[in-house]
Write a structure and sequence with these properties.
11 helices, seven-stranded mixed β-sheet, 354 residues, binds zinc ion, globular, Rossmann fold, alpha/beta, six-stranded parallel β-sheet, Quinone Oxidoreductase, Chain A, domain 1
C-alpha cells in the first residue's frame, strides 16, 4: 500500500485544483468495506465539491469522486456483503449514503433520508486508490463490463431512471425532450427512454454530438441555438402538441424553452441547474397547460438493482450501457476535471488506476 494516493480539496478553488497526497488507507469499520479503486468516474458534483457551493459547508479536506469500481479488498469485522459481491472480488459502488433507520430509509426512499449524502461530497470519495464505503453500497458489476464502464454507470443511470420512471411515470409511446444529450446523464436518459418504449428528442451543443445521440436511440436531434426557435422545432416534431416529458438538468438557460416545449398535461422533471439556479417564468404557462414540475435528486438504491436485473435479462443485447467519453489515469484527475468542465466530450469522463 506504499503507493496509495488520493486527491484532496483542502480549500475551495478553481476546477482542477485538488492536490495529490500519499495516504495510508484505513481499515473498514463493521458494516463497511475498503475498495481498491480500479476506475472512478467524474460527475458535476466533483466540480462543485472543488469550487464550493454557496451556503453549503463541506467537510474539508475532502476527497471528491462519487462513482467508482474496483476490488473488495477488506471488510469490517462481521460484515456481510450483498448478493453477487465477494471479498476479493470486483464491485461497483452506489454513491448514495443514508442512515438506514429513519422512516424514509425504512420505506426504501433512501434519497429522502434527512442525513442523505453522496460519496465524495459528504465523506471521502473515489478520486483515490482506496475508498471506504458501506458494504450495502456495493453492487455486482453487470456482464463483462470493464471497471471503467462499471464506474461510469451508477450515478447517472440511477438519476435518469428515477427521473423517467418514478418521477415522470413515462409510458410507452410518449415523447421525451432530453436536454444535453451528450452529457453523462443525458446519454443515460436517451437509452432508457428507448428501452422504456418512449421517443427521445435530444438537444446537443454541436453537430458532432448529434450522430452519437442517434446511435443511442434518439429519434430526433436538435442542435442548441436560440431557445424560442428550439421550442418551436420541438412543437413541429410533435404535431404542435409538445413533448409529454421534459428531462431537465440544465436550468436557467433552458427553463423557458422547457415550459414552452412541454405538452398540455406534460411533466417537467429536473435534477440540475448547470447554467444557473435562478429563473423566473410566467405562471400562466404552468397552470393553463396543467404542467407538473418535479424535482429529482439521485434515486432509490433499489433502482440500481432493478437496472442490473434488466441487464441480466438481455446479456447478448443489453438495452443500455455506460457511454465513455475519455479515460484518464487517476494521477491526472485534475486534468479530467478540466476536461469535464469544458463540456466538449460525449458521455462520462473516467479515471483509471493503472
Ligand atoms: Zn435515513
Amino acid at each position: 500500500m506504499s503507493e496509495a494516493f488520493r486527491f484532496r480539496v483542502t480549500q475551495h478553488g478553481a476546477v482542477g485544483t485538488p492536490t495529490r497526497e500519499a495516504f495510508v488507507p484505513a481499515d473498514p469499520e463493521p458494516g463497511w468495506a475498503r475498495i481498491a479503486v480500479k476506475a472512478m468516474a467524474l460527475n458535476r458534483l466533483d466540480l462543485w465539491t472543488t469550487e464550493g457551493i454557496p451556503g453549503f459547508a463541506l467537510p474539508l479536506p475532502l476527497t471528491p469522486g462519487c462513482d467508482g469500481a474496483g476490488f473488495v479488498e477488506a471488510v469490517g469485522q462481521g460484515t456481510r456483503l450483498p448478493q453477487g459481491v465477494e471479498l476479493g472480488g470486483s464491485a461497483m459502488i452506489a454513491p448514495g449514503l443514508s442512515c438506514g433507520l429513519c422512516p424514509a430509509c425504512l420505506r426504501g426512499d433512501d434519497m429522502l433520508c434527512p442525513s442523505y449524502g453522496i460519496l465524495g461530497h459528504a465523506c471521502d470519495g473515489t478520486a483515490a486508490t482506496h475508498v471506504l464505503v458501506p458494504a450495502a453500497n456495493l453492487l455486482p458489476i453487470p456482464g463483462n463490463w470493464s471497471f471503467e464502464q462499471a464506474a461510469a454507470f451508477p450515478l447517472v443511470f440511477l438519476t435518469a431512471w428515477e427521473m423517467l420512471v418514478p418521477k415522470a411515470a413515462l409510458r410507452p409511446g410518449e415523447t421525451v425532450l432530453v436536454w444535453g444529450g451528450g452529457s453523462g446523464v443525458g446519454s443515460a436518459a436517451l437509452q432508457l427512454v428507448k428501452a422504456l418504449g418512449g421517443t427521445a428528442i435530444a438537444v446537443v451543443g454541436s453537430e458532432a454530438k448529434a450522430i452519437r445521440c442517434w446511435e443511442l436511440g434518439a429519434e430526433h436531434v436538435l442542435v442548441r441555438g436560440e431557445m424560442k426557435a428550439l421550442a418551436g422545432k420541438v412543437r413541429d416534431l410533435t404535431g404542435k402538441r409538445g413533448v409529454d416529458v421534459v428531462f431537465e438538468h440544465t436550468g436557467a438557460a433552458t427553463w423557458g424553452a422547457s415550459l414552452s416545449a412541454c405538452a398540455r398535461g406534460g411533466r417537467i422533471v429536473t435534477c440540475g441547474a448547470t447554467t444557473g439556479r435562478e429563473t423566473s417564468f410566467d405562471l400562466r404557462a404552468l397552470f393553463a397547460k396543467q404542467i407538473q414540475i418535479r424535482g429529482s435528486y439521485m434515486g432509490r438504491r433499489e433502482h440500481l438493482w432493478t437496472l442490473i436485473s434488466l441487464l441480466a435479462q438481455r446479456p447478448a443485447n443489453p438495452p443500455f450501457r455506460p457511454v465513455l467519453d475519455r479515460v484518464f489515469d487517476l494521477a491526472d484527475y485534475p486534468a479530467a476535471q478540466c476536461h469535464l468542465e469544458a463540456g466538449q466530450g460525449f458521455g462520462k469522463v473516467v479515471c483509471r488506476v493503472p
